[in-house]
Amino acid sequence: MRLRKIKRSQASGWRVIRRCVIFFTAICLVPVFLVFMVATDHYVRPERHKLSFTLHKSFRDDNDLHSNPNNHNFSMVYKRLDQRRRHLRKACHILGLDKNGNDSLHRPNSWEYLVDQKHRLVWCNVFKAASTSWMYNFNILAGYSPYFLRKSRTPPLTLARQKYGRPTLESLQEALEDEKSVSFLIVRHPLERLLSAYRDKIQYAVSGSYHFKLGRDIIKNYRKKGTAGPKYPTYPEFIKWLVDSVKGGKPLDMHWTPIVEFCTPCMFNIKIIAHTETLEDDQDFIIKSAGLQDVIKPEWKNAGKGSTTAHISSHYSQLTRSLILQLYHIFRFDFELFNYSLNGYLEVGQPDQDPSTLLAAITMKDTKPNSIPHIY
């Protein structure tokens, strides 16, 4: 009997200890979980024009919509594009990005724009956002024949600059102020654009090129010795290098630098903000608005490496959630200005082994919120 009582007493003691462990674990983890849910709500919930916008004067007379044979679809696309334009202007103002300054966010950059004065077309060449397609169209408008463009070994951008040159700030502003001009920008989800740049410039880098040598350096510094891997940097290796580059204050490559710095859209009045997600309708609208439907057509050219969208889950599932949040911080102005969120990205990320790392990424803030993003 005494033996049974002792065993029951021991079992009861272990139950008490186990309950205490569970209780204190819950006390420690629940606050972290709640902070994660609340803080990341901003990242995963896209903004849907919560603020009331003031209508701007349309850049085309509304009567033009009725002259189009497919005017219902044309009108819907027009409204969507007008919403994006108004959202951009409002977000620029709220974030303080529409004020002149001395840094790369507040200093107008006309360098990357192409201005076709003959056809009154203005475009900022955002790499990895249908840039190949529209560089081809601008070269056609410049007078190059399709046959010449197929056979030429000169880079399309070089050919275009030979015809259009680099606009001065004054000439760009003059072109944008022309009521009959069609100015546009094509944007893409920041993290999909980043993945596309990695696949094109790092994974499939041309042997001996600048990006090929960069890949070798990344492997040398970010791959553990004796670890097997491909001849090019893995996506986690590339992203860790990128985050460290930003931490070190190094300038980013033009193929993945944020659009907010590359084109400074808050400094200019751009009429059309096209998205790659709706590119078929958007570029059709651009071409018809410019009256160029008999000269150029909607294009979707790529380097033949397949759809980047299909690789999003497989590549971002290799990253920790804290690393994904740090990427959000680097591209946060692009997320805000063009109304993107982390939906579909944060969910596939790997849980961080150290909760404090994730918490630090969640609560990461800038002391100057409208300055160039920094990672601390």
From TrEMBL:
The keyword Glycoprotein is annotated on this UniProt entry: yes
InterPro entries noted in UniProt: Carb_sulfotrans_8-10, Sulfotransferase
Compartments, as annotated in UniProt: Golgi apparatus membrane
GO biological process annotation, one example: carbohydrate biosynthetic process
UniProt key word Lipid metabolism: no
GO molecular function: sulfotransferase activity
Membrane-spanning ranges: 21-39
Name of this protein: Carbohydrate sulfotransferase
Organism field: Ceutorhynchus assimilis (cabbage seed weevil)
Source taxonomy: Eukaryota, Metazoa, Ecdysozoa, Arthropoda, Hexapoda
